[in-house]
């Protein structure tokens, strides 16, 4: 991955993170936060049981440590807005406090979920330093230094690893949703283009039919103009043909305009193209007869028999 791609990826992730921060707290967020605070308090009480029963710890120190844990649990309400700052403060407090352990793990998990990998790496480095410093400042009565460091490393790596897994899953689902939306939009554009091309093709074909109708009008009008000696019956027949051709031409023109004006949603729900209003091969004998009535000499050769007319 090039540096520009990495920068675009980082900016996209940052935009998504800021978008999450700006969103209002939902009912699900409230439930998750209450559960996280409850689990953090329960973990801190369980993990600090050895300290509470240690006779070498004074009541004042135990009460101060407990109050620090309470404040840390309440501070978890800010974990969505200030996850990095909260994690750093709890890491510093965890050096001298047992009861901050539960809220600290939740804060590290939140950083891994809502922040990019570079930020998680920096916070993870600070957590690693805290893992080595905390047992030296306040050793666990039930564990030696190595055991305390290994247990802290296991808990911290588990919280960060779980958070990164949740983040990667969320990003994957977001990417799949974006791809699905983009594919749907592209499919809609392709369908619109196909329908537009279909309407244009139908309009071109109807233009040819309309030209045929107008040519018949021109032929009959010219015959009436140059045959002044035509009988009333011939004039009436020519006028009837002109009237019929003009009516058909207007009908064809309305169909062409209707096809061109039809919106994309007027196509069938199955995505099929609109009905074709132009004549088919079955209408060929009728067109030939109209031309013959107009005075044209037309010979129809139907070797395939699709038109149903004699040669």
UniProtKB/TrEMBL annotation:
<dbReference type="InterPro" id="IPR055558">
    <property type="entry name" value="DUF7134"/>
</dbReference>
<feature type="domain" description="DUF7134">
    <location>
        <begin position="28"/>
        <end position="170"/>
    </location>
</feature>
<keyword id="KW-1133">Transmembrane helix</keyword>
<feature type="coiled-coil region">
    <location>
        <begin position="166"/>
        <end position="193"/>
    </location>
</feature>
<dbReference type="GO" id="GO:0046983">
    <property type="term" value="F:protein dimerization activity"/>
</dbReference>
<feature type="transmembrane region" description="Helical">
    <location>
        <begin position="30"/>
        <end position="48"/>
    </location>
</feature>
<feature type="domain" description="Signal transduction histidine kinase subgroup 3 dimerisation and phosphoacceptor">
    <location>
        <begin position="199"/>
        <end position="264"/>
    </location>
</feature>
<keyword id="KW-0418">Kinase</keyword>
<feature type="transmembrane region" description="Helical">
    <location>
        <begin position="145"/>
        <end position="166"/>
    </location>
</feature>
<keyword id="KW-0812">Transmembrane</keyword>
<dbReference type="InterPro" id="IPR050482">
    <property type="entry name" value="Sensor_HK_TwoCompSys"/>
</dbReference>
<keyword id="KW-0175">Coiled coil</keyword>
<keyword id="KW-0597">Phosphoprotein</keyword>
<dbReference type="GO" id="GO:0016020">
    <property type="term" value="C:membrane"/>
</dbReference>
<feature type="transmembrane region" description="Helical">
    <location>
        <begin position="86"/>
        <end position="113"/>
    </location>
</feature>
<dbReference type="Pfam" id="PF07730">
    <property type="entry name" value="HisKA_3"/>
</dbReference>
<keyword id="KW-0902">Two-component regulatory system</keyword>
<dbReference type="Pfam" id="PF23539">
    <property type="entry name" value="DUF7134"/>
</dbReference>
<protein>
    <recommendedName>
        <fullName>histidine kinase</fullName>
        <ecNumber>2.7.13.3</ecNumber>
    </recommendedName>
</protein>
<dbReference type="InterPro" id="IPR011712">
    <property type="entry name" value="Sig_transdc_His_kin_sub3_dim/P"/>
</dbReference>
<keyword id="KW-0808">Transferase</keyword>
<feature type="transmembrane region" description="Helical">
    <location>
        <begin position="60"/>
        <end position="79"/>
    </location>
</feature>
<keyword id="KW-0067">ATP-binding</keyword>
<keyword id="KW-0547">Nucleotide-binding</keyword>
<dbReference type="GO" id="GO:0005524">
    <property type="term" value="F:ATP binding"/>
</dbReference>
<keyword id="KW-0472">Membrane</keyword>
<feature type="region of interest" description="Disordered">
    <location>
        <begin position="264"/>
        <end position="311"/>
    </location>
</feature>
<dbReference type="GO" id="GO:0000155">
    <property type="term" value="F:phosphorelay sensor kinase activity"/>
</dbReference>
């Amino acid at each position: 991955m090039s540096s520009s791609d990495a920068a675009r990826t980082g900016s996209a992730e940052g935009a998504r993170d800021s978008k999450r921060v700006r969103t209002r707290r939902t009912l699900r967020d409230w439930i998750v936060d209450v559960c996280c605070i409850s689990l953090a308090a329960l973990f801190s009480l369980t993990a600090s049981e050895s300290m509470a029963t240690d006779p070498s710890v004074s009541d004042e120190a135990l009460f101060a440590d407990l109050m620090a844990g309470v404040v840390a649990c309440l501070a978890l309400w800010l974990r969505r807005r200030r996850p990095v700052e909260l994690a750093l403060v709890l890491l510093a407090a965890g050096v001298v406090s047992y009861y901050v352990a539960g809220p600290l793990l939740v804060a590290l998990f939140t950083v891994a979920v809502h922040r990019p990998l570079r930020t998680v790496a920096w916070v993870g480095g600070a957590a690693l330093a805290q893992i080595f410093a905390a047992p030296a400042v306040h050793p666990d009565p039930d564990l030696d230094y190595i055991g305390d460091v290994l247990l802290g490393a296991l808990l911290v790596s588990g919280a960060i690893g779980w958070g990164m897994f949740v983040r990667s899953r969320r990003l994957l689902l977001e990417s799949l949703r974006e791809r699905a939306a983009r594919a749907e939009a592209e499919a809609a554009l392709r369908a619109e283009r196909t329908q537009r091309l279909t309407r244009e093709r139908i309009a071109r074909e109807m233009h040819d039919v309309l030209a045929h109708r107008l040519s018949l009008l021109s032929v009959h009008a010219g015959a009436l103009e140059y045959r002044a000696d035509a009988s009333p019956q011939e004039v009436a027949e020519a006028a009837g043909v002109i009237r019929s051709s003009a009516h058909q031409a207007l009908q064809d023109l309305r169909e062409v305009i209707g096809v061109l004006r039809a919106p994309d949603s007027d196509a069938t729900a199955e995505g099929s193209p609109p009905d074709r209003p132009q004549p088919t091969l079955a209408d060929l004998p009728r067109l030939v007869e109209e031309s013959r009535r107009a005075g044209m000499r037309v010979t129809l050769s139907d070797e395939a028999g699709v038109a149903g007319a004699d040669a």
